[in-house]
Each structure stands twice: as C-alpha cells, then as structure tokens.
Amino acid sequence: MKLNLKKLGAIAIIGYSLIFNPIKTTKDYWSFRRNIDQHVIEAISLQEKELGIKHQGRPNVKFRRPPFEGVYLAEANYIPWTDTIHFDSFLPTLFISTATFGLCNINYRGVLHHELGHFYCDKIRERNNIAFSNNQFTRTIEEGIAEYFRRSIRSEKAGHGSYNRWYNKVKPVIEKEGVEVIESLVISPDKFINAQHL
Length: 198
Ligand SMILES: [Zn+2]
Prior knowledge:
Elements: H1 5-34, H2 36-51, E1 60-63, E2 77-79, E3 84-87, H3 90-99, H4 108-127, H5 136-154, H6 161-177, H7 181-187, H8 189-196
Parallel strand pairs: 1-3
Antiparallel strand pairs: 2-3
Helix pairs in contact: 1-3, 2-4, 4-5, 5-6, 7-8
Zinc ion is lined by residues 114, 118, 143, 146.
C-alpha cells in the first residue's frame, strides 16, 4: 500500500477518534470519579479562598443521570431537592466523546466549580425558606453566579452563548457590590433583573 499524505491524515484522524481519544476520555473519567471526594473538598476550599464565600456543607455527587424525566443532562446537573450534583455514567460519557470526536469531552474541574455555584445558591434559598422555581429570573441569576464561580477560579471561557449572556449580566453586579450581594440576588432575582434591566 502506498501511503500518501491524505491517507496518513485519514489514519491519524481515525486513530485519534477511535483509539487515543477514547483512552484519554476513559482515563480522565475514572481519575475524576475515583477521587471525587478529594476534588469536591479542594474545589470548595479554593472557592472559599478565592471568592471570599463560605459554603454550607458539601453536596452529594452521583455518576448517573438524574432519576426522573424532564431533566436534560448537558455536562452535569445540580438537583436542589437532593443536594446532588449528577455527572453522567461511564458508557454514555464514552459514547458521546467518541461520537463527537472528543468535542463534547467534559472539563470536569470547571464543571464542578459551576455546579458548586448552584449548590451555594441552593443553600441560600434553603436558609431563607424559598422554594426552588425554575423561571427565567432564577435561571439568569443562578446560571450567571455558577459561571462567575467557574470563571473566577478557572479563567475559562464559556462554550454556550446563553451562559456568556447570563455571566455578563451577573458579573458586574458582584464586582461592584461584592460577593455579599449574591444572597440578595438569589433571594429576589426578579427585583434585580427589573431594577437593573439585567
Ligand atoms: Zn448551571
């Protein structure tokens, strides 16, 4: 067989997609999952130090999709009524990674920082006896806060347009008023959005 550049390129792409990427995905997944307690402890202490906040306890973490219909698991989900961060189980993770040539690989540490932002908001709601409701105000504010947590710690850019928008709405408020404002944002998201045209 004569190898030309085209064939070599094709072999390289197939090799990456079918061998190297799945091997890397498998390694990253199990390394994160095996050490999840340590990752959570480290992420919490980093957030407390860098952001100047105080977390109330620790969330549960599960490596399977949330056990009910209607929840779309993008990278992970935080479920407020069980205080649980859900990552996906191994086989769907491997399948998604392989089928998308690694484009949908999860940056676990970044996602964990984001989900801890949801956990932080949830504890504020619980302390103030506010029921969780998934409306546009809550979504804008809490996704913005979760992204603020992730990007402040990890200096990462978002992939999604909506996450950028939510982040850019919430970030200036927190930077101007300090992290203490997060409590008011979570308690009255509608007030902030209406008052400041967020
Ligand atoms: Zn989120």
